Amino acid sequence: MARVCEICSKGRQVGFNVSHANNKTKKVWEPNLHQIHGVIAGVVRRIKVCTRCLRSQRVQKAV
Q1: CA atoms of 13 and 60, how far apart (whole Å)
Q2: Domain spans of the chain, in order of start
Q3: Which of these, 26, 34, 38, 55, is most buried using a 10 Å CB contact count?
């Protein structure tokens, strides 16, 4: 599962770009993910975490 936050499961969102003439084209918004070394259940591993989880300290970074 690429491009998904391993803490909150935030993934991509799909929608439309809408022009002034109301033309619609498909668009994909990807989450802002970072690969960090985090502590999960006492074990240090490399995980993909969104910046919101990093800011709210839902994951503990390894020292």
Answers
A1: 27
A2: 13-61
A3: 38
